[in-house]
Amino acid sequence: MTDPRLESLLQSCPDLRLKTDAGDLEHYGRDWTRRWAPAPLAIALPGSVEEVQAVVRWANAHKVAVVPSGGRTGLSGGAVAANGELVLSLERMNKPLGFDAVDRTLVVQAGMPLEAVHNTAKEHGLIYPVDFAARGSCSIGGNIATNAGGIRVIRYGNTREWIAGLKVVAGNGELLELNKGLIKNSSGYDFRQLMIGSEGTLGIVVEATLKLTDPPPSTNVMVLALPSFEVLMQVFSAFRERLQLEAFEFFTDLAVKHVTAHGAQYPFEQIHPYYVVTEYASADEAGEAAALAAFEYCMEQGWVLDGVISTSEAQAQQLWRLREGITESVARYKPYKNDVSVRISAMPAFLAETQALISGAYPHFEVVWFGHIGDGNLHINVLKPDDTSDAEFLGQCEHVTKLLAQVLQRFDGSISAEHGIGLVKKAYLASTRSDAEVALMRGVKRVFDPNGLMNPGKVFDL
């Protein structure tokens, strides 16, 4: 270690773990986008809130930018360190700190993996209901930084609905304790909500007080085969009217092709163009009867061609793998990802226009569609052909994203439903936020991060 700045960092924080090996710099300097070459100064792994504060104060003194890092499972470049930044990884701060049975809250360090949060809540007979496929590797701090949604938003909402309090190290090194677990608190601005979804640009979440809730009633899983894109919302409406839905996800035949090649089991004899996996409450015979009635009604309308209902927990997991395994199954193709949302009521018209745009724009590319259709969130994954260069592929995808952003603007939608803006979607922020809003965002950042060192270049440029 020859950089005098790092030597001074260790002098001010002697117990701090610091990594500078080339392999570590590459590993910690990027997220799942793989689009930017990682080039961080070093990787700091604090073990306490006090060490996080010391690192941030050192960064201000030496004018070194800081990139907060959790599980780095993001898809928008929000955890990329490509310009000599110090990566501040929270992976050592990964423990539960306290459970309150009366308040039904769980205090955790920000580096705790989501799956570990689920398991800890379960030990107390409760659940933390935010969930998605990357649960084993993503961290709760990263979930908070992007207001992560996932597969159960239709039932439980996004991350922000489940955050009762936060501890945040602001851009100047000051520790902020926000809301402190209160249910009601009308005493001024709620900076807790401001931090949720801020992508580490205002400060670093170091602890979170999570709300827990009762486990859902017994559930069952059904996979449906659909004849067309257009009937998705009719099927959703029919099932929502008759059942208590926990999740309602859709995917296409191309998604099935890739995920079954990756090990998932296909439940039907024939291939169909579109699919839905839904999970619903089925605590008694009445619940199962309602599910069967919804299925039969949709069959009669011609909206559903076939279906299968899980008969065991193992089969339910197999059916869910058809949806949850998609991202991993297409990863080798370096997919270009769009993560967009509109109001549920606008989804039919938006789907029709977007499908026409995408099919016309990508005649030679495979496009894998899937998403949380029940909460208006659509994922569009464009797969790079082997005979197309990265630059050519990216250029064509960026052109289409500009057109897609214009469609979203007309529908009052969002260019980022749950992945964040990061670096990938920064150019399209104006399709979602007005000039006045972005100007206010810049002003807020200057207050919390006066030297502009917290995850600079993400979301917008100062």
TrEMBL record:
Cofactor section: FAD
Domain of life: Bacteria
Family, similarity comment: Belongs to the FAD-binding oxidoreductase/transferase type 4 family.
One Pfam assignment: FAD-oxidase_C
E.C. number(s) listed in UniProt: 1.1.99.39
The protein's name in its UniProt record: D-2-hydroxyglutarate dehydrogenase
Residue ranges of domain FAD-binding PCMH-type in the record: 36-215
